[in-house]
Fold:
Amino acid sequence: MRHFLVIQFLSAIMLVNGTVAQNLNDPTTKLLDETLNQWHRDAANAHLDEYIGSMADEGVFIGTDAMEYWTTAEFKAFCQPYFDKGTTWNFIPLKRNISLSMDKNTAWFDELLNTHMGICRGSGILQRQGDQWKIEQYVLSATIPNEQMREVTREKLAADSALILKMVFDRYGMKGSFLLLDSRNDRYLGYNPPLWDSGYLPASTFKIPNSLIGLETQVIDTATIFRWDRNPRALSDWNRDLTLREAFQVSCVPCYQEVARKIGVDRMREYLKKLSFGTMDVHPENIDSFWLEGNSRISPRQQVTFLQHLNEETLPLTKNVMEAVKSIMLNEETSEYRLLGKTGWAIRNGNNYGWFVGWIVTGDRTYYLATLIEPEDPEKFPDFHVARKAVTMDILRNLGIIGFAGIR
Structure:
């Protein structure tokens, strides 16, 4: 957004004041050329006060790393240890263009530099302040030959994706992880890899295997109706008779507790072992709650692997059972994509984290995903009923898998 505002600001100035193309014989242009040369020399010679003094107090320096956006004061703090040790940088200008506003109080420039990072491009704004010129903004960027761009893009894909995802999590005030499997390339990418193999309660994501096992053991079928006993339940959506699809979509805990009790401990253990759905701790006393509290655990990677087997129908189950569960998992269908998935929210015994797991189909591409979110501030957090899926969809848009997100 700041970059966009800068562009608007520059456009406004040029419309009002106009610009003068570079004139190498113009005294002001010569002065600006030497001002920038001296600025680079001050860096090479570790003259910190002079180097920072050439920048406006409200100036900014934008570096080659995506997160390097410093105010003048912040940039000074970054530079200080390098200048103190005399281990600075020597940027040698190779070519420079300078344009002036009609009143010659504002200048725009770009330059090619020979640096320790190879050829880089610098660009920015200079503003006249009294009898001095100050750098209002400087942007340093690495130059990449077009024929090498594909290779560079591939090399930095994982790092770029992780940064994009971190920015989404930060925007929602969340911590956690995101794991995406691109099935075409058998490639994983995402955010916070150390958590991909950490175990968590499955919470209501367990409704996926619970539905599969219930249908396979025939304790329920696709025509099952869960009758409401007229006792008030935790959510108003649960206070009615529900079909299997409806019970899944509104995540009716009492309905699926009934399914688990009908399946029973022995069959539940048997099928969970066949399905390799994490490590579920099932006993007679917790048959209707083991996925909500206790020692049951599943990792984001295990979720993704399980979902891939379900979608590809390679689980050791009847084909029509897998097709039926995939049908009730349909979350969204547009002209662009089909999203199948399930939310979960572990909130018992001090836990407070949410899931969205599933897969998205766009054209001939299928991506399997597991989102795990937890509020940065336990006292202030968004409604998980919205945030779990919202974070997921925002990530998919920012990765370019669906639609366009932009800055919100």
Observations:
- The mean pLDDT is 91.
- The first strand starts at residue 19 and ends at 20.
- Residues 27-44 form the longest helix (18 residues).
